[in-house]
């Protein structure tokens, strides 16, 4: 199978709102295929429902996995379970605990907020005490001739930031996508220094607590990481940026500015890392200079291979591959990615797919009143329906149970989580955090 080049993270994430291009197929598993004459056979296999008692089992689940914490409001209502019904989803999704200050996942929680989804801004304020880091998607660092330009200050909402800081202690680290011509930037010390100066100046001017940087998959797409000397320069740039940020104190709390670095899952066809993959050696190289790594453990399936958004076995193997031999020593710096969006696939040759948010999902559930199906290997719910043209669809979207399983996985590593993105999920998801 020919290997596809990874896309830039910014492009991948825009496609989660309106996906129009296929994503690379991730490794290390045997993804199920909805296509062709095997449609019904596959659906029959994955339609097996594993029934558990609701309220009692949910309470015991919570007590086992959160021994020192009271059960979440969602657990108290017996909603975190495999045999969830469409009626429960429609009735309960907007009901949340009045106590938004109680954290049930006590490891770091980073959430992304995008300008194209205004609901995320309101949810960030409402549930602010649940988060340790909030990352508004505001900036791009670009080449303009021989100069560098940081675009995006017009997005910066200082009033919203002030409200957040009245409601909680979450650090605000805007996301910056590094779109400058990679080879020009990395080979030119003056450009590297200028890039770092632009980012630090912006943090000082607006009052940020640091930044979230995306660059690795863009560098991979431009072939930078296949060149040993350029790869070394790339790592040196990230280290220099992190060290420089640490030398500056936040105006708000006097703490060093932070750097969170975005990394994608490996896209090799086996457990062997490819040249462009971010691996355990890179993690160790950057660990002293980077405060956290936002790991994009989602977008597993594609229109060409419909299926789960982030199979739990794949999430586990991805973390294991990243931390390398020795296990958990650096896992506490990882923010395990959790998607709050889903996908609606057409199950037919060349059928296609569309990304869906909570509003889309509730509309489909209300219209089709489906049987919710839990697949244990994936640890995800899905349902099937037929549209007006009698085309069969499969819908994969997060549920309380699928999120709880991923929180449990992150907790087992001592890792945090990162959520893409605020405003795409259902309100009661936040009860679990």
Automatic annotation (TrEMBL):
<keyword id="KW-1133">Transmembrane helix</keyword>
<dbReference type="GO" id="GO:0070492">
    <property type="term" value="F:oligosaccharide binding"/>
</dbReference>
<keyword id="KW-0964">Secreted</keyword>
<keyword id="KW-0812">Transmembrane</keyword>
<dbReference type="InterPro" id="IPR017853">
    <property type="entry name" value="GH"/>
</dbReference>
<feature type="domain" description="GH18">
    <location>
        <begin position="107"/>
        <end position="433"/>
    </location>
</feature>
<protein>
    <recommendedName>
        <fullName>Chitinase domain-containing protein 1</fullName>
    </recommendedName>
</protein>
<dbReference type="GO" id="GO:0012505">
    <property type="term" value="C:endomembrane system"/>
</dbReference>
<dbReference type="InterPro" id="IPR011583">
    <property type="entry name" value="Chitinase_II/V-like_cat"/>
</dbReference>
<keyword id="KW-0458">Lysosome</keyword>
<keyword id="KW-0732">Signal</keyword>
<comment type="similarity">
    <text>Belongs to the glycosyl hydrolase 18 family.</text>
</comment>
<dbReference type="GO" id="GO:0005576">
    <property type="term" value="C:extracellular region"/>
</dbReference>
<dbReference type="GO" id="GO:0005975">
    <property type="term" value="P:carbohydrate metabolic process"/>
</dbReference>
<dbReference type="InterPro" id="IPR001223">
    <property type="entry name" value="Glyco_hydro18_cat"/>
</dbReference>
<keyword id="KW-0472">Membrane</keyword>
<feature type="region of interest" description="Disordered">
    <location>
        <begin position="1"/>
        <end position="36"/>
    </location>
</feature>
<dbReference type="GO" id="GO:0008061">
    <property type="term" value="F:chitin binding"/>
</dbReference>
<feature type="transmembrane region" description="Helical">
    <location>
        <begin position="42"/>
        <end position="61"/>
    </location>
</feature>
<dbReference type="Pfam" id="PF00704">
    <property type="entry name" value="Glyco_hydro_18"/>
</dbReference>
<dbReference type="InterPro" id="IPR029070">
    <property type="entry name" value="Chitinase_insertion_sf"/>
</dbReference>
<dbReference type="GO" id="GO:0005764">
    <property type="term" value="C:lysosome"/>
</dbReference>
<feature type="compositionally biased region" description="Basic and acidic residues">
    <location>
        <begin position="1"/>
        <end position="12"/>
    </location>
</feature>
């Amino acid at each position: 199978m020919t290997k596809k080049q990874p896309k830039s993270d910014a492009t991948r994430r825009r496609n989660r709102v309106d996906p129009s291009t296929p994503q690379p197929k991730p490794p290390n598993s045997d993804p199920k295929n909805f296509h062709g004459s095997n449609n019904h056979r596959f659906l029959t296999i994955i339609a097996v429902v594993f029934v558990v008692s609701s309220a009692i089992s949910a309470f015991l689940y919570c007590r086992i996995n959160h021994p020192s914490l009271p059960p979440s409001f969602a657990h108290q209502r017996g909603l975190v379970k495999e045999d969830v019904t469409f009626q429960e989803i429609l009735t309960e999704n907007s009901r949340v605990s009045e106590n938004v200050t109680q954290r049930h996942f006590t490891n770091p929680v980073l959430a992304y907020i995008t300008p194209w989804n205004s609901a995320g801004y309101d949810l960030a304020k409402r549930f602010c005490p649940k988060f340790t880091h909030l990352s508004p998607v505001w900036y791009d660092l670009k080449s303009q001739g021989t100069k560098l330009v940081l675009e995006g200050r017009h997005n910066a909402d200082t009033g919203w930031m002030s409200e957040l800081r009245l409601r909680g202690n979450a650090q605000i680290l805007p996301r910056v996508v590094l779109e400058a011509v990679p080879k020009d930037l990395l080979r030119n010390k003056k450009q590297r220094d200028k890039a770092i100066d632009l980012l630090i100046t912006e943090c000082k001017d607006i009052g940020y607590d640091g930044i979230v940087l995306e660059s690795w998959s863009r560098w991979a797409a431009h072939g930078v990481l296949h060149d040993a000397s350029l790869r070394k320069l790339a790592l040196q740039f990230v280290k220099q940026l992190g060290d420089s940020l640490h030398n500056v104190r936040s105006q708000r709390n006097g703490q060093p500015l932070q750097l969170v670095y975005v990394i994608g899952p490996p896209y090799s066809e086996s457990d062997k890392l490819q040249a462009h993959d971010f691996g355990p050696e890179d993690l160790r190289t950057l660990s002293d200079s980077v405060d956290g790594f936002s790991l994009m453990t989602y977008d597993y399936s594609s229109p060409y291979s419909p299926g789960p958004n982030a199979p739990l076995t794949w999430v586990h193997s991805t973390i294991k591959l990243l931390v390398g031999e020795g296990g958990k020593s650096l896992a506490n710096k990882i923010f395990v990615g959790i998607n709050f969006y889903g996908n609606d696939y057409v199950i037919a040759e060349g059928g296609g797919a569309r990304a869906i948010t909570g509003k889309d999902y509730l509309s489909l559930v209300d219209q089709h009143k489906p049987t919710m199906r839990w697949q244990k290997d994936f640890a995800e719910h899905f349902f099937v329906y037929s549209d007006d043209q009698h085309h069969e669809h499969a819908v994969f979207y997060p549920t309380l149970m699928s999120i709880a399983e991923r929180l449990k996985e992150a907790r087992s590593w001592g890792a945090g989580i990162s959520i893409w993105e605020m405003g795409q999920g259902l309100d009661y998801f936040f009860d679990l955090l």
